[in-house]
Amino acid sequence: MLEFLKQLTDPQSIIQYGGLALLLFVVFAETGLLIGFFLPGDSLIFISGLICVSKPELLGVDLFTLIAALSAAAIIGNMAGYWFGYKVGPPLFKRDDSLIFKKRYLETTKAFYDKNGGKTLIIGRFLPIIRTFAPILAGVIKLDFKQFMLYNVIGALAWIGLLASVGYYLGSYQWVQQNVGYIVIGLVIITAIPIITTYFKSKKGK
Fold first, then answer.
1. Is the Cα torsion angle 193, 166, 8, 183 positive or negative in sign?
2. What is the spatial distance between Cα 148 and Cα 138, in angstroms, rounded to a whole number?
3. Of 39, 105, 116, 164, which residue is 20 to 30 A from 171 by alpha carbon distance?
4. For the segment 71-108, what is each residue's pLDDT rounded down to a tens digit?
5. Whole-angstrom Cα distance, residue 42 to residue 39?
6. Domain that holds residue 59
7. Which residues of 3-25 are buried (b: 16+ CB within 10 A; e: fewer)?
8. How many domains does the chain fold into?
9. Which long-range contacts (CB under 8 A, 24 or more apart) does 56-65 make?
């Protein structure tokens, strides 16, 4: 089990061992399941675009099909998160911390949501933790479903399309293929900065 969880946090292992099917599940889980916040969404999508051009046999699809499939998984994932938040509602804020769920993740997302409104569903796609909890919070506050779906679709297409395309076009460079690990670390650091800033601002405000 530990080895399996380790592979789920390694983008290259996900694609190598699970192919497109596991790739789609991970994107769905990170955007739709409460436990999906630890999954490597940004780096996974970037590397899938890179592999699409450098090792196309691993995924067996072209870039357009890859983007369409991943976008669909991300859209459905957000719908699942919205449904969960809609059904569970405010009691989620009173839930005790567990090994997986941390109340501060929800509070950080709420602070981000208070600042950016419905646009959080678009901006949050590019931010770890926020992209997992934003659709859940939208369900909790019962955001109009049509408005939610508009932000949901735009955010999914922008997130998947940008990262997969960048990975695809950079994947033809030998230097990029040889330094994927450093690029992934850079993505993690860049996307973590807004989360950390929002968390400390909300903590200071309290």
1. negative
2. 8
3. 39
4. 999 999 999 999 988 888 777 666 666 655 667 777 77
5. 9
6. 2-205
7. eeeebbebbbebbeeeebebbbb
8. 1
9. 58/15, 58/16, 58/19, 59/15, 59/19, 59/20, 59/23, 60/19, 60/20, 61/20, 63/164, 63/165, 63/168
